[in-house]
Amino acid sequence: MQVARRRATALLCTAAAGSMLLSGCLQNPNQGGGSSSEGGGILADNAEADGDGVVTILGAFGGQEQEAFEASLTEFETSSGIDVQYTSDQDFTNTIQLRTGSGQQPDIAIFPQPGGLLGLADDGFIQPIDTYLDYDALDTTLVSGFLEAASQGGRTWGAPMRMAVKSLVWYPLAAYEAGGYDTEPANLTELADVATQIRDSGTAAWCMGWESDQATGWVGTDWIEEYMLRLWGPDVYDQWTSHQIPFNDERVIAAFDAYGELLDVPENVLGGRNAVLSVPFGEAMLPAFQEPPQCLMERQGNFVTGFFPDDVQADLDAEVGIFAFPPAAEGDYTGQPILGGGDLAALMNGNDEDAIAVMQFLTSPEFGGPWAEAGGWLSPHTTFDVSQYPDDVTRRTAEIVAEADVFRYDGSDLMPNAVGGGSFWTAMTEWVSGAKTAEQVTTDIENSWPDADDEEAS
User: What does pLDDT average to over the chain?
Assistant: First the structure.
């Protein structure tokens, strides 16, 4: 989940380009293409003037991210003559609903999760992308899955402008290499062997922390999603996140059990299973940088570097290493999956050629150079110029995604908020503390899943 913006952001079939592996072709679900007057396009509209050279954007990111975003638009604004006016709102999820309900929606909205986007598309407030973007060309450059994540009812309603990657294992470079540990374990069995070697040296294998105020539990949901992808593959994962199979399906319980095995090995996790609830997620990796290190590995998203010590952040390439959280060694699925998410841009004014021009740039491989150079941003395009990233760690992250067999969105971000941001979080804390079994918490989540009427009302 994207912690900065809901600790959160479907289902992705693989239609990859370049080095991406094909495990199923994503066909263009849209009707026609070309201009906003073709293809049976819904002409979403707002109250703002069309063709006035001003395009308004509402998003959730602010601060340095906003500065880097705006810097990435400067050259486009100069060459196009369009004035892009971005507004940051930390309560974006509610604000976009309120503004749309009162007829004050922006020209473009940038959604940190697919759910809010698709809900407004259902209500006719979003312009389908096939009416103003070249769907097939876009699909060939994107990391597999993003367009599928924004698809519903046979059309696609948004396109990504930022990617987040979760399936990464981080380690302190000097200490890890001094121990001679495998820097590219091929599967979960080899990763378990690495953990055994680290424990045998007298150091805990895993750094781990879940504490996140009211959102405590989201780190645990990420782990379950990782195991669901690896044990059962993307098809079952899709069925699980869309509730085509019950949450207490035996395969979900098996994912809990697999994670439980990692937690319950003595000295495998720093402080043991019960400690994870009291360790802030942003501080989990800090013991790895002590002398001597107290733990050596953390599975966490690419955002986590912002929580590393200042001296580590200042020289990431010399201080940390990463590898992909590996696939299962055997079983139903042995491909390399990657869990992640992204920000999806959506057009809310299909009549405005200026807004269309901004969307075309914003969702292209050419967008984002200044943001990439500033750090903390990843392009969702496999054709993005990776030389613009500030360090080899970021370039390696992009490479890991490009080499993956399949990419899937964070499952809790695909589920109804009552589950993905509610009962799933709560259940994880009850399970990891030992208050309830996997069977009990998965049944609790299953019983909390809203029915179709409840979802539509929300």
Answer: 89
One domain, residues 276 and 344: no
Q: What residue has token string 């539509």? A: 456
Whole-number Å distance between alpha carbons of 270 and 310: 22
Reported confidence tier of residue 454, pLDDT bands at 50, 70, 90: low
Does the pLDDT of residue 277 top 90, yes or no?
yes
Mean pLDDT of 81-106: 96
Measured between alpha carbons, how far is residue 185 from residues 182, 191, 242, 298, 322 in Å? 6, 5, 31, 14, 11
Same domain for 194 and 260?
A: yes
Q: Is residue 228 part of a domain?
A: yes
CA-wise closest residue to 275 among 207, 214, 218 = 207
Type of residue found at 382: T
pLDDT above 80 for 17: no
| Residues 291, 237 within the same domain | yes
Within a 13 Å sphere around the CA of 59, how many CA atoms are in the beta-carbon half? 26
Other C-beta atoms within 10 Å of 124: how many? 11
Kindly report the CATH number assigned to the domain that includes residue 246. Answer: 3.40.190.10
Q: To the nearest whole percent, how much of the chain has pLDDT over 90?
A: 83
Structural domain including 354 reads: 3-165+338-397
Q: Report d(CA 402, CA 383) in Å as an integer.
A: 10
**Predicted pLDDT at 115:** 86
First CA to last CA distance, the chain: 21
pLDDT value at residue 451? 84
Burial of 123 (0-12, 13-18, 19+ CB in 10 A): exposed
| Nearest of 133, 126, 109 to residue 35 by alpha carbon | 133
The four Cα atoms 153, 158, 162, 165 give a dihedral, to 10 degrees, of 0
User: Which residues fall within 8 angstroms of residue 225, CB to CB, at 6 or more apart?
Assistant: 237, 339, 408, 410, 411, 412
